[in-house]
Task: inverse folding
């Protein structure tokens, strides 16, 4: 399930990093905990997730204990690479983490705390489907140390949710937000635009509903059709239309207008926050190239310039850990050129932008043309930063190509 793993060199059975790799204690350390279970597979989903019928050889009720074995293994790996750091962010993603009992999520978080420590003021996020959040669930999560709930709203319009195979009632979002607020949790709402049959008016309704719920953070992602998904097959058979690029561009601009008018500032191409304190610090760590360890089947990690990824199926993941082996399937160490390209790709997406001084060769010469084309902010470039205009955000891939060709 989900996209194929990268091709890299085999990872050692003990998970050890290359002998010469040393952890920089000044680099923030994030933790990602993957929970790969869903009640229903959404038609657009390409993530490494599994419904109960697909879980042959793995048990959901044993998952927390299995994942904690990887946490324990990683302690030895990181100690061998120069030391441990407290986690500055923790993110439970999926799948649907809240399909597990809150106590299981709490035990996983406690395992991270006992192994590494969790920094004071750390951001601890749990992703949740709206229909899995009750007052009791939110309260137990908060008591365990969770600080933030990221709710998969996607849309407020019933026929759009149906087109995406989402099973929750639109009214469940407000109930989930109220439960989170009652427990003292910050709230992020995730939206998707460009579903088959979704109009600009539908999208406006979803945005206005989301804003009225007064979240701290909103993510809005254009629907992307991934090979191998149900939705891709439906489009190929002509059963539903493919997303319209021009309509999706209009939807993005509407989101930026409405969210900006409601006091949300963009800080990454697809993300808006009520203020800087409510940005997703965990996701910023990805875009800024910090270190993180991803636990769980199919999870990816980045430690001191080494990237590695776990076997995908929960059964294979559990089997390796039961044998005392690392679940890592492969790893790679990108060279300087690849790291430079990735840095431009990721850091141009955020509001702070990319330093002009770090551009290589022809990239610097492209800046003037990008300003003239309205893709890069002129005043920011004069101050040494590549910052995307709104049009530039819509054409971010083209900007990256121009800066790296």
Result:
């Amino acid at each position: 399930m989900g996209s194929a793993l990268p091709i890299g060199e085999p990872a050692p059975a003990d998970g050890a990093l290359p002998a010469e790799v040393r952890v920089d204690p000044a680099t923030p350390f994030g933790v990602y905990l993957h929970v790969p279970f869903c009640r229903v597979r959404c038609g657009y989903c390409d993530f490494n997730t599994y419904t109960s019928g697909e879980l042959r050889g793995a048990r959901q009720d044993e998952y927390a204990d299995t994942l904690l074995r990887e946490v324990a293994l990683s302690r030895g790996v990181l100690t061998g690479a120069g030391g441990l750091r407290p986690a500055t962010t923790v993110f439970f993603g999926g799948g649907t983490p809240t399909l597990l009992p809150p106590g299981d999520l709490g035990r996983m978080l406690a395992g991270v705390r006992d192994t590494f420590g969790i920094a004071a003021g750390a951001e601890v996020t749990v992703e949740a489907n709206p229909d899995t959040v009750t007052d009791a669930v939110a309260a137990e999560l908060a008591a365990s140390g969770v600080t933030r709930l990221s709710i998969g709203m996607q849309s407020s319009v019933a026929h759009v949710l149906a087109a995406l195979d989402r099973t929750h009632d639109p009214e469940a979002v407000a109930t989930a937000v109220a439960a989170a607020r009652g427990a003292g949790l910050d709230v992020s709402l995730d939206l998707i635009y460009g579903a088959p049959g979704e109009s600009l008016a539908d999208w406006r309704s979803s945005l206005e509903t989301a804003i009225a719920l007064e979240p701290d953070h909103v993510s809005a992602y254009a629907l992307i059709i991934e090979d191998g998904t149900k939705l891709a097959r439906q489009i190929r058979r002509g059963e539903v239309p493919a997303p319209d690029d021009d309509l999706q561009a209009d939807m993005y601009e509407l989101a930026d207008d409405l969210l900006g008018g409601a006091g949300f500032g963009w800080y990454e191409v697809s993300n808006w926050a009520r203020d800087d304190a409510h940005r997703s610090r965990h996701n910023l760590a990805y875009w800024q190239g910090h270190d993180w360890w991803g636990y769980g089947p199919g999870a990816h990690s980045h430690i001191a310039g080494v990237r590695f990824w776990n076997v995908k199926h929960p059964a294979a993941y559990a089997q390796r850990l039961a044998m005392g082996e690392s679940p890592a399937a492969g790893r790679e160490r990108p060279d300087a050129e690849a790291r430079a390209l990735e840095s431009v790709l990721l850091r141009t997406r955020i509001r702070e932008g990319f330093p002009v001084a770090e551009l290589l060769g022809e990239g610097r010469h492209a800046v003037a043309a990008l300003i003239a084309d309205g893709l890069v902010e002129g005043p920011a470039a004069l101050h040494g930063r590549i910052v995307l205009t709104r049009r530039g955000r819509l054409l971010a891939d083209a900007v990256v190509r121009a800066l790296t060709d």
